[in-house]
Amino acid sequence: MLFRQLFDAETSTYTYLLADAATGAAALIDPVLEQVERDLKLLRERGLTLSVVLETHVHADHVTGAGVLRERTGAAVVASPRGAPCVDRMVRHGDLVRVGGLELHVLETPGHTDDSLSFLCDGRLFTGDALLIRGTGRTDFQNGDPGQLYDAITRVLFRLPEDTEVYPGHDYAGHTVSTVGEEKRHNPRLAGRSREDFIFLMQGLRLPPPRKLDVAVPANRACGHPLLPRSLQV
Amino acid sequence: MLFRQLFDAETSTYTYLLADAATGAAALIDPVLEQVERDLKLLRERGLTLSVVLETHVHADHVTGAGVLRERTGAAVVASPRGAPCVDRMVRHGDLVRVGGLELHVLETPGHTDDSLSFLCDGRLFTGDALLIRGTGRTDFQNGDPGQLYDAITRVLFRLPEDTEVYPGHDYAGHTVSTVGEEKRHNPRLAGRSREDFIFLMQGLRLPPPRKLDVAVPANRACGHPLLPRSLQV
């Protein structure tokens, strides 16, 4: 398996490339519109064929590259049925997404947004904005719900083996990876906190709105594609 | 082995943590002064003891955390004899640095600076600013020499197995890792270029001076430690 973590410095967003070395089939998780050329170049250089683009959720802080990548490569866009209407395949908890010989297991992990998914592939867990390294996604817009997020993290993600590698959708402190065990013990929003504590903490954060909320959410509901009909952009 | 790639967004610098899981002995390669607290926290959380700090070279674009880490942990600072006089152990091509049960092999790879080292540990190559992903370090200050850099990359680094993972000291495009084979084939400064071509290319770059050159080089010759005698800071 070929695995690459890619970073968009402007929005501190991680994109992940996973590919089956035997067949050359590849997946991108959470690509960023401004980085599409970089990502396509890497795919070309490694002789890979993009077969799917997976979205962990409808992002509010950057515009997805999914629609443009679909147009350029024919890849299918995969996400939650609660998310963008523009996707090709809607997946639910327990579904399997095959990329050549790779298997990505779909986990529903709502709470940051109601459409949030995580993906598990070969000991690597891609958590989007549900579980971050020593943090979590916020829960104050896009039908976020702190109780739901607590349940998703503690009942779904934290039940995976402790050495499962955690690859988040963002990091703002320069961390690239953690593990389930490390987050159980050292995530300050979760370690030793009850569900009620967590809800109280999240409701008290009073964060400013995400920088690109008004632009990013409508754009991402259209898979980031500026040429889609306006009817899909609301 | 525990391995972590860490990023300083302000200077696009990568720091690497390597640790022997059996003994808890750890090494940091190219720590950044402003990130010392983050790095110490991670060491504490993982129950690790910092035994060595390795410098790939005297940096011109950020101040090292080596001196402060040494003071806080007792770790030994390891670098080239051509670099900072403040280090504890000066190493040469072919030397071995042991970190618990881990072995880091020292490779002299001058040309970006005359003191540039790379380190090889268990299939991972830490190249500092000699070889970058799809690029190289510049060669126009600190006794840089494009011919020397070409030789170091093509005769030392490119003779390693093709699947050796390349972890650079910086990246400005959001790449985190490459391989020797990928760089041989796709590095635009090297692929298909003769030594003469490379020298011509590097001599024509006409880059502005690094932002922190005047501050960083003297500070790094004192291991980044503001309390060292002034005599060591020149």
From TrEMBL, chains A, B:
GO biological process per UniProt = glutathione metabolic process; hydrogen sulfide metabolic process
Q: What cofactor(s) does the depicted protein rely on?
A: Fe(2+)
The family database entries (Gene3D superfamilies) matched by this protein are listed as:
Ribonuclease Z/Hydroxyacylglutathione hydrolase-like
Give one Pfam family: Lactamase_B
Database matches in InterPro entries: Metallo-B-lactamas (IPR001279), Mito_Persulfide_Diox (IPR051682), POD-like_MBL-fold (IPR044528), RibonucZ/Hydroxyglut_hydro (IPR036866)
Q: Name one GO molecular function term.
A: hydrolase activity
Keywords for this entry?
Acetylation, Dioxygenase, Hydrolase, Iron, Metal-binding, Oxidoreductase, Transit peptide
Keyword Secreted set for record? no
Q: Residue ranges of the Metallo-beta-lactamase domain? A: 12-170
Q: Which family does it belong to?
A: Belongs to the metallo-beta-lactamase superfamily. Glyoxalase II family.
Q: What is this protein called?
A: Zn-dependent hydrolase
What species was this sequence derived from? Corallococcus macrosporus DSM 14697
